[in-house]
Amino acid sequence: MSVIRKGTLEDASNIFELYKKVSSIYPDNLAQQIDEVNFSYIQAEIKNAQLHGLVLLMFNDGKLIGFVKAYTSEFRRKAHVLTNATMMMDPTAVGQGFGTQLLEAYLDELQKSLRHIRVMELLPYDLNVKGIRLYERMGFVLTATLPNKIRYVNGTFGDQLLMNWINPSFCDQVLLQYYQYLKTLNNVET
């Protein structure tokens, strides 16, 4: 049985293990090489998603099989764009509909809880064909191709795609409230 829930800092070690597993099979789908990802990086990404976005985890039979995280800029002019996205599925769970369920749950939660988000952007690499097909099925639209943006493991260069999804539940009034949250957060952190 699969369960989807919000992620916390306590999930960092499981997420780190998933990074290692995915990078060993699909190294060209990640922006980083696995030796550039450490536990502190994972914790920082979770914290950013908790403060400025959303992180969801998917478990099947108690085992972490996927996660999605994204967060906005801390700057108000870009606070309506959910970016810095990572979606990762355990390779043994690919092709079984779990990715669709997880991304569907993520977009549903955005529409319910993050109505200040107007746009969610994804930046997959051109070799991530399965991921790109999933994103298109979920309503993401290709808006740009950025040539030679990644150097693959074999030494060739690949393109990065910019894909956007428009939140049908966006509310300008909620965005203005989020601006206040950012002001408070930035005053507390300084």
Automatic annotation (TrEMBL):
It holds the Pfam family Acetyltransf_1. One of its GO terms (molecular function) is acyltransferase activity, transferring groups other than amino-acyl groups. CDD domains: NAT_SF. Residues 2-164 form the N-acetyltransferase domain. SUPFAM superfamilies: Acyl-CoA N-acyltransferases (Nat). This is N-acetyltransferase domain-containing protein. It comes from Rotaria sordida. The lineage of its organism: Eukaryota, Metazoa, Spiralia, Gnathifera, Rotifera.
